[in-house]
Amino acid sequence: VHLVESGGGLVQPGGSLRLSCVASGFTFSTKHMSWYRQAPEKEREWVAGITTAGGSTLYADSVKGRFTISRDNTKNTVYLQMNSLKPEDTAVYYCNAGYRTPFYDYWGQGTQVTVSS
User: Fold this and answer.
1) What DSSP designation does 88 have?
2) Beta carbons within 8 Å of 72's beta carbon, 6+ residues apart
3) CA 111 remoteness from chain centre
4) How far apart are CA 93 and CA 63, in angstroms?
5) Which tens digits make up the pLDDT trace of 11-68?
6) What is the DSSP letter of 82?
7) Distance from C-alpha of 43 to C-alpha of 117, rounded to nearest angstrom
8) Closest C-alpha among 39, 43, 54, 42 to residue 99
């Protein structure tokens, strides 16, 4: 299993970012996928999930209405569009298989998102 996240950066409050996660080592189209994040000195938390064909999505209350998860099974990639970013969204963002619970013990390097003025 290999998961490579990208797209993070420094953004001002109210700004937007689009994260990508390219997966390999498993049959991507057969796995639900999720995004997670870990802020400094906090435990990793689930952010959003999407079913295998993208027909259903689910979001943590803290990001509902601001974040959108999507996937492209032809590219083995899951995305997270983040709008109206807040300082409390600052964290390292990771993807993993699974809908609300990580399927693999393996985690990629993540991508840092910093929301600050």
Assistant:
1) G
2) 79
3) 9
4) 13
5) 999 999 999 999 999 999 999 999 999 999 999 999 999 999 989 999 999 999 999 9
6) E
7) 25
8) 54
